[in-house]
Structures are given as structure tokens and as C-alpha cells.
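Input chain follows. Return C-alpha cells only.
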Amino acid sequence: MTSVMVMGREVQIPVEVRQARSWFASFAVGRDAAARIVAPAGLEPASLPGGRAMLSLGFVRYVDGDLDPYNEVAVAILVADPEAERAKGPTSTSCR
């Protein structure tokens, strides 16, 4: 088992989460606004009809786990696959 230091405390990996609650929502937002957010990473938002892009919000309340209780927020924008243009394939997403 591997361990890492988190805020001065040794934590074993994998971390166990025993109880948590989560909420998730997605919204169609203006593509230009989304483009300004992802541009510094060299990415472009995937295009939706009407000049829109997809933005998702996630919220997690960790109630009981190895890292003690805490809250987490995630913001995600669906981006165009940077490899698709070179491969002449469709726009897609992937996690890396």
C-alpha cells in the first residue's frame, strides 16, 4: 500500500470514503464565455447548437472517510478533442 502526506498527515492510498453525498448539474452556456475559460489550457469548447457549450457543476459532501469530513466543488467544460482535427475524426471527449 502506498502512502502520501496530506496537510502534514500520512494517508494510505487508496483513500476510503465511507459516506458521501453528491449533486451534479449541466447547463448550456455561451460558447465564447466558455472559450475564454479553457483557452489558457490550449483547448476549445465543444460546440452545441446555437453557439452554446456544455458546463457541468459537481458538488460532493464527504461525511466520513480517511480524509475527515470536507466539501468539494468541480467545474467542467466539455471540450473538443484536440486530436480529432489531425485525425479528421469527430469531436469527442476523453479523460487522461
